[in-house]
Amino acid sequence: MALKPTIYKTSIQLADSDRHVYTDLTMTLAQHPSETLERLTARLIAYCLEYEPGLEFSRGLSTTDEPAIWHHNDNGTICQWIEMGHPEPARLKKACGISSSVKVYSYGKSTDTWWSQNQTSLSQLDKVSVFQFDSKDIEIVTAWWQRNLSLSLSISGGEIYISDGQQVHTMQAAEHQTGSKSQ
Asked: pTM above the 0.90 mark?
């Protein structure tokens, strides 16, 4: 018998003054049985950083031909392809062929190693932007998870301020220089 996902209900007050996006989000998130809470945390924060109407989570880790998050335009074309973790350059190259924009939000202790091994390949892909969450920041926010989670997330000047109503944490998504930025 296959394991079922763990379901989380989230409500987020999003205030992104950098992009002038202010909205309340209510979502049901499914944590795949093989997905860590750290990945779920990074996925939720990346979603908020990229939020626009129509942005959606894909079917999850078991669907290998989809990213973690994506946005389709009205005719079904993929406008935004957002990966989590440490994807292979070949996967990102393929994504560049079918999407207008490809972003990676990396996290975890091995991110620096992944970046140093793949920087040259990734810098040749014009549509790819790579951002890194500090693993300690993700661990702090991960400790807040409950089955029903309410957060406020504010973005100003590249700083991300997250609060669960009792504690506040400040973090960043550091951008690595890739082909889309180095020209």
From this structure: yes
